[in-house]
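Hello again, I could really use a second opinion on something today. Take your time with it, there's no hurry, and the full record follows here:

___
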Amino acid sequence: MPLKLIANAFCWDKLWPPDFSQLTEKEKFRFERRYKRRVKLATARPRWDKFVRLAQLSSVTFVLVYSIFFMDWETEKQPFQGIRDRFWGAFGSSGQDQRFERQKPNMPAATGQR
């Protein structure tokens, strides 16, 4: 008998889990909102989410850059040919075959004679 008194020393105000068939729509909504908030907080993984977002962004960026500048479209007129020409015109002059074209022509050598 004393064990039952110790075990039942606290009387619970609320029964958990509640019987949803007896709750009003407002009470159901409150429980659902509270549960969703707690689940969201418990399963939050900010480091993993950041990694996934960066991986998605980098893969989409890579595919776009590759398809615009490097991909062979195998069509008569390539859709990004104007962009390609401007890009390689601006950065293409830094290639090894055009290295000497960029130097200033016929600079006098400093020989020490006047």
